[in-house]
Amino acid sequence: MKDQKTQITPILRVVLLLLILAWCFYIIKPFIIILVWATILGVALYPVYKKLILFFGQKKRKGVTFLFTLIAVAIIVVPSYFLASSLAQTTKVTAEKIRTNTLNIPAPKESVRDWPLVGEELYEQWKGISDNLESYIQQNQDILLEIGGKLLGGVTGVLAALGIFIIALLISIVFMYNAELSYEATVKFHSKILGVPGNEIVDMSRDTIRSVVRGILLVAIIQALLSLVGFEIIGLPGAGLWALAALLAGIVQLPMLLVMIPAILVAFSIVDTPYAIIFAVYCVLVSISDTFLKPLLLGQGLKTPMIVILVGAIGGLFLHGIVGLFVGPVILAVVYQLYMYWVDSIEEE
Prior knowledge:
Blueprint: H1 2-28, H2 32-56, H3 61-99, H4 119-131, H5 133-139, H6 141-177, H7 179-194, H8 199-234, H9 239-251, H10 257-270, H11 273-288, H12 290-298, H13 306-320, H14 322-348
Helix pairs in contact: 2-3, 2-6, 2-8, 2-14, 3-6, 3-9, 8-9, 8-11, 8-12, 8-14, 9-10, 10-11, 13-14
């Protein structure tokens, strides 16, 4: 009986500990994505921050931190805002025109007939909608408004993600300001959990995050912004939506030409041929820009298979929305590298 009583105490301790941990989890649950995002940004941007500190000196650390905040906002947040703003404006204007029956679709050029396979059918359908747009909208107004509502909801999600991104960026700067303490605490935590020095795993996770952010996410954002510039200049309808499609293609590692070719075809149907040709060349250059951007930003190369990045992006999108599109690949890549580290350590033993 005495032994049973002594066994109850450790069980109660474990149960109480689990309850406290669960309580803590639910308290911080609304902030988990922001903290994860802040950690990713902090790890990715710290080398730049550290170089600024070394250049100006430790005595001016606070001033350098303020300067770095301004630079980070200018480089990251401002372009992201213009991309999201363009997307929101495009969707809002299109939905309003559908609602008021004022949407205008330009008639296709005769050259559309000469497009292979789909040219003739596409021309007839396009011409019919352009000539009888008001009748088409009246017949399909409910469906079009439903689609427009969903698109507007998606845009709202993008703007909310941008707000989360800004908050996470500010938190990441706090992390970078206390980088040494954060690194030591992380190493101690891994050492305690694994029972061995955690430096190697922490360093490997850090390098993986930087590789994914620079080699995948940053390249995708650069290509999307370059695409947006071209789409706006040529006057492509729904330029923000096209740029968003380019961003998604870049993140999930699909060929950018899958987005550019339809955009080029539309351009040939709405502007003069010389301008469309210039636009087509620009789109091809943007599509192949990753061939030199990735080696430049990725350094020694990303060791994570592209299928892991693809699954992380799609799974993250379904789980956490637009924020998960960025966070998913990074988290899955880190877990993959931890798995490979564990498998290699077993082989060595």
